[in-house]
Design brief:
homodimer; alpha+beta; Arc Repressor Mutant, subunit A; three-stranded antiparallel beta sheet; elongated; DNA-binding; WH_DNA-bd_sf (chains A, B); transcription (chains A, B); HTH_ArsR_DNA-bd_dom (chains A, B); DNA binding (chains A, B)
DNA sequence: CCTCTATGTTGACGAACTTCGAAGCAGGAT
DNA sequence: ATCCTGCTTCGAAGTTCGTCAACATAGAGG
């Protein structure tokens, strides 16, 4: 299932290794890589999907719990989930009849780190 | 100059007022608003522009310093800068012959906060 | 085996995006 | 006023994206 070519956000982010977006000019290859992840977040449907998955109590959501929240066909939801998966933001597994999705926090952590300025702790909101 | 309809990232983010992306399901309107900002970041050219602007010593960059870094026409760079500006990520001002751009850190701070999980400080990288 | 349900994949189409050249505008210099 | 330079806006071409209907697949249960 999770045999998609993921976007791997190289060395960086929360582990405090490599330059953040806001401190050092971004190289072209790295920009391309990063843009894929941000592009995945650049759609309202995908943002809501990610949010629904991330905020789920047990950490896992079945597709059948996601689809009814939208006025979209199931294939469209499936398509958006695939893009989020390819961006390395979520992963999934089939369990019997259903497929469960969960957040990959490393990726969001790295994005948050990249967008954080040196002096700014940027504690989680709420 | 800065009379663009900015995307205003409502109440949220670093000020710890409203739910982060990862803790509470996102409302539709808010998702649309947020998606515009992420979409602005979803292009390699714009990411590099933002990075170049943000990491500049004095905090300001002239367009003429940005353009040579790309294999793109000046109108194209101008277009991307406009999108970043409409997303509320940067602003600009004309001074004599040149136009200077600078980062609006409130917006990146808010994004970082939204992507940060409750337990995770997400200190700036590098 | 066959059928039913839950998901993913394919192909197609309109909308949106990226890019360019050409034209427009604002200021400084002549 | 006239020209030149720096930048933005306009209009068009090519590409990518979001969406759906139709089809394919995986597993459960007869």
């Amino acid at each position: 299932m999770s045999k998609q070519e993921l976007v791997v956000l190289g060395q960086d982010g929360a582990d405090g290794c490599c330059p953040g977006l806001l401190t050092t000019p971004l190289g072209e290859e790295r920009a391309v890589e990063l843009a894929k992840v941000f592009k995945a977040l650049g759609d309202p449907v995908r943002l809501r999907l990610l949010s629904m998955i991330a905020s789920r109590e047990g950490g896992e959501v079945c597709v059948c719990d996601l689809t009814p929240a939208f006025d979209l066909s199931q294939p469209t939801i499936s398509h958006h989930l695939k893009l989020l998966r390819q961006a390395g933001l979520i992963d999934c597994e089939r369990r019997g009849t259903w497929v469960y999705y969960w957040l990959l926090p490393e990726t969001t952590d790295k994005l948050a780190g990249l967008l954080t300025r040196p002096g700014q702790p940027a504690e989680a909101s709420s």
